[in-house]
Amino acid sequence: MRRVVVLIAVPVLGLALVVLAGALLIPRGERSPASSGPVRETDPIVLAQQRLQRLPDDWTTWAQLGMAYIQRARTTGDPADHQLARQALDRSLAIRPENNATALTGLGALAGAHHDFPEALKHGRAALEVDPYRAAALGVVADALTELGRYDEAFATVQKMVDLKPDAASYSRASYAWELRGETSRATEAMGRALDASYLPADSAFARLQLGQLALGAGDPDTAERHFAEGLRLVPGHPPLRVGLARVRAARGDLTGAAGEFRAVLAAVPEPAYVAELGDLLAAAGQRAEADREYTRARQAWAAETEGGHPPEADPVLFAADYRDPGALDAARRLYDRQPGIGGADAMGWALRAAGRPEEALRYADQALALGTRNPLTHYHRGMILFDLGRDADARADLETALRINPHFSVVHAPAARAALKR
What we know:
Helix content: over 70%
Low-confidence stretches: 1-41
Number of helices: 23
Mean pLDDT: 89
């Protein structure tokens, strides 16, 4: 499992962190107003379409329809929803080209979904110029700032969002903030509040997904399985939740079952990172030829994305560095130049190590862990860089930390960490 989810990060401890703690630590008996009623089953896309049949020039509803398509794409992984979202948002702006904060927020969310974070930041800030109190626009800006490595600004924006509207969206971002600081218990508590505040099945399923990932990342597959299964009860077939269950199986040693689940997901969502992870499962099971075929598929899919103008991402860079593919370092530089945050720094360090330059790699590995993030893969990367430098005691500390956080963090890299420790 290569992917390092980096959505919201926080700076060094200070006043802002104290304020966030106060905003989040609501007494256990209290709930967000949004959670006081039953879960609503009404589809916001259907509601918007019904309204637009009566009021075809309702620019606000067109923008809301675009946002609803973006939300659905997060659940289904269907890129067609992003096309529909763009059409709806463009229609809204055609009707109301000025002072349309809702549509600008939607354009920012859509850019973020495509990992174009500079564009997301531009649209999010434009929305806030129109409406400084739009919580959704604050979320777009916070996500973009985080991915761009501008953590102080991102943290302050998350705080504004929590203060303005303590709901599922703001609590989720606060959870990521705690997670990237290494405060996993606080991250779990904040995400639990996001679950409490959710009133649509998709929102509840998203919270369950994050809670499951937090549990699995901490080496607790049983809790993770409960969250993933509950999420799938709410949104049957949800691809990331099914992948979560596949990772639980892999953590328990059921590589065959995990691979079967990945194949089922890939039949619906051909995500290249999932293809590469399937390859890892097959390699761990001793099926090298089958693994190599999946790796080739992943390489080809990522190459097609690059040729299509897709912004750089960490997953293909880490994969290329894992297997010392040509161009890994150049790809890492493009990623880091665009997104010099935790994910970019981790990828840059790993690619430099693959290129035989561990001294330079260590600087980026240090940067990736500077916030205190307890990510086992990132600790593993730093440990192997230190191993190459001959700093055995420091290497042992990072490798042991990776395995202590999650003994099953990767079917490929966890065994490699154990082997390095033996050496």
